[in-house]
Design goal:
- The chain is mainly beta.
- The chain is about 15% helix and about 45% strand.
- The protein contains three helices and 16 strands.
- It has helices at about 90-100, 165-175, 205-215; strands at about 5-10, 10-20, 25-30, 35-40, 55-60, 70-80, 80-85, 115-120, 125-135, 140-150, 150, 155-160, 180-190, 195-200, 220-225, 230-235.
- A seven-stranded mixed β-sheet has the order 1-16-15-13-10-9-8. A six-stranded antiparallel β-sheet has the order 4-3-2-5-6-7, with no helix packed on it. It has a three-stranded mixed β-sheet with strand order 11-12-14.
- The longest helix is centred in the last third of the chain and has 13 residues, at about 165-175.
- The chain is globular and about 55 Å long.
- About 35% of the residues are buried.
Length: about 250
Amino acid sequence: MANAWHYPFPPLYPGILVKRYKRFLADIELETGELITAHCPNTGPMTGILHIGGRVQVSHSNDPKRKLAYTWELAEVKDTVPTWVGVNTALPNRVVKSMLEHRLLPELGDYTTIRPEVRYGGDNKSRTDFVVSDDDAQTSTYIEVKNTTWAQGTLALFPDTVTTRGQKHLKELMALMPSARGVMLYFINRGDCTTFAPGDAADPTYGKLLRQAIAQGVQVLPCRFEVTPTEIRYLGLAPLILAESD
């Protein structure tokens, strides 16, 4: 069952966000009182989850080659109830890879091979996050993973800013049809959201392309996750809401 599966975090250290700057940097005061500069792996606007003075969690690396030993992993939001939200945009692909290996997404059907970072698209310069293939049936499914953290109440939204890259991915998935299958997997990186919709207010073009992609057969999997300072737990799929916002 999905609820029995979880992805463990390494040891995380609590702190308070002092400031975030130059997109990649965040000054954080640890619980010990030490002020550190952590790598911020989310270069977007972090709409609704970037709160100066808010509680955060960071991981630590002993790799001497790293310029910054700490990585900002989680931020706490206080909407209806306090909720931890995943900040590290590199983590969803690692989690999804584990889920694919454990066959936790029956919506994908049967597959025998899993390949990450496969080149595709008209110019063959894009890389899809995963391709799963059934060697016997000679079918392939191309999967794009999108970290989703923006929320309005219990509604998760993607994107939270204009994303020409995301628009390009939707066009490329549509171009694969019908010789291959395309899947958009929205990684809802917070446990307080129960439904999902395109973020029309942030990028109306993306919303129109997503609806067009669905009409052409691209499958959408809005995956819900509960996030804590110790683990990420899969909660199942969120209902998809496609009614365009006013």
